[in-house]
Specification:
By secondary structure, the chain is of the alpha+beta class. A three-stranded antiparallel sheet has the order 1-3-2. The protein starts with a strand and ends with a helix. 7% of the residues are buried.
Length: 72
């Protein structure tokens, strides 16, 4: 299979996560890290995103963001 690089908007469309959640989860090591394509461009490995999705499905529930996990 051919390796694909995904841009942020593509990752958001695939996962349904907003930008803030992507970066929050990345900072906690709970979402695949992006990498630099050039000085002003980053991307994610499509295989890493698919693996993350499969982990979420196997867990049977979505991973809550910190804001969602905090009691009201």
């Amino acid at each position: 299979m051919e390796k694909k690089f995904l841009r942020r908007r593509q990752v958001q469309a695939i996962t349904g996560l907003p930008t803030s959640s992507l970066y929050e989860l990345m900072a906690k090591g709970k979402f695949p890290k992006n990498f630099r394509l050039s000085v002003h461009r980053v991307a994610w490995d499509s295989e890493a995103i698919t693996a993350w999705q499969n982990e979420r499905l196997a867990a049977g529930r979505p991973l809550p963001t910190e804001r969602e996990a905090q009691p009201a």
